[in-house]
Design a protein that fits this description.
It comes from Latimeria chalumnae (Coelacanth). InterPro entries: Transposase_22 (IPR004244). This is L1 transposable element RRM domain-containing protein. Keywords: Coiled coil. β4 and β5 form a beta hairpin. It contains six helices and nine strands. It has three domains: about 100 residues; about 100 residues, 2-Layer Sandwich (Alpha-Beta Plaits), CATH 3.30.70.1820; about 60 residues, L1 transposable element, C-terminal domain (Rec A Protein, domain 2), CATH 3.30.250.20. It is α+β, with helices and mostly antiparallel strands and about 270 residues long.
């Protein structure tokens, strides 16, 4: 009985040892696995940190580039504003220069008259002599007072065909009062005829000034119809005398408003004394 018990104890001890070895082996395997996993996690964590760092650096670079782009855009916008302002100043200076040039051109023509209607060739090669003789007869001027035509010529351009409109005469008078005397006599006479040809006398303005003055054509017709005293003065200023006051207009639209009664006297127009 005692031997049986001893054998049983040995068998249990052997089983226990085997069981402990299995447990130890399992623990060792688990430790290896956990260690390997830990190593992998550490490596992964390092990779993640490196990736996050790389992403952060990329964001920093992107932020720097964005800041630089904003700075450049702001600079371009500022330069654009400055360029626009500079261009506006240049345009204003150019417009002022063009106006001065046009004014100088018209002042150089202040003694000139443009005469329209004479057929080509009637001057016989000497327009100055021809016009000195014919103008006093047409306008009823005192022949004892010389016209003093400094020079005379046809308007520049090729000679027109017989079926086309003849070129105007341009005459330059020595004295401004003579010019005014001729234009005044032409206005008084109205229709001037020479050998069945209607002859017209005009100031010799530049093309730009002619266009500016033509803008007042409609309002001048209205003033004539209403028998209101007016005058179109150099360069393109319409003066209307009405109800004892003289008003000056540089804008045909404002003159129309005045006549229509939509503006009061003395508000927008300039009053001249």
């Amino acid at each position: 009985k005692t031997e049986s018990l001893h054998f049983a104890d040995e068998e249990r001890g052997t089983k226990k040892k085997k069981s402990m070895k299995k447990i130890q082996k399992k623990i060792a395997n688990d430790y290896k696995i956990r260690k390997k996993q830990s190593t992998q996690l550490t490596a992964n964590d390092t990779e993640v940190k490196q990736a996050v760092l790389a992403l952060q650096q990329s964001q920093d670079r992107l932020g720097a580039r964005l800041t630089e782009a904003e700075r450049r855009i702001s600079k371009v916008e500022d330069e654009g504003v400055e360029e626009t302002q500079r261009l506006q100043r240049v345009e204003q200076q150019l417009a002022a220069a063009v106006n001065r040039i046009d004014d100088l051109e018209n002042r150089s023509r202040r003694n000139n008259i443009r005469i329209v209607g004479f057929p080509e060739g009637v001057e016989g090669g000497n327009p100055r002599k021809f016009l000195q003789a014919v103008i006093p007869e047409l306008l009823g001027l005192d022949k004892e007072v010389p016209l003093e035509i400094e020079r005379a010529h046809r308007a520049l351009g090729p000679r027109p065909a017989p079926s086309q409109r003849s070129r105007a005469f341009i005459i330059k008078l020595l004295r401004f009062p003579t010019r005014e005397r001729i234009l005044g006599a032409a206005r008084v006479k109205g229709h001037v005829m020479w050998e069945n040809q209607r002859i017209s006398f005009f100031p010799d303005w530049s093309r730009d000034l002619q266009l500016k003055r033509q803008l007042f054509w409609e309002i001048r017709k209205i003033l004539r119809d209403r028998k209101i005293k007016f005058g179109l003065f150099y360069p393109a200023v319409l003066k209307i005398t009405h109800n004892g006051e003289t008003l000056a207009f540089t804008d045909p639209g404002e003159a129309k408003k005045y006549l229509a009664g939509s503006v009061e006297l003395g508000n927008n127009p300039t009053t001249s004394r």
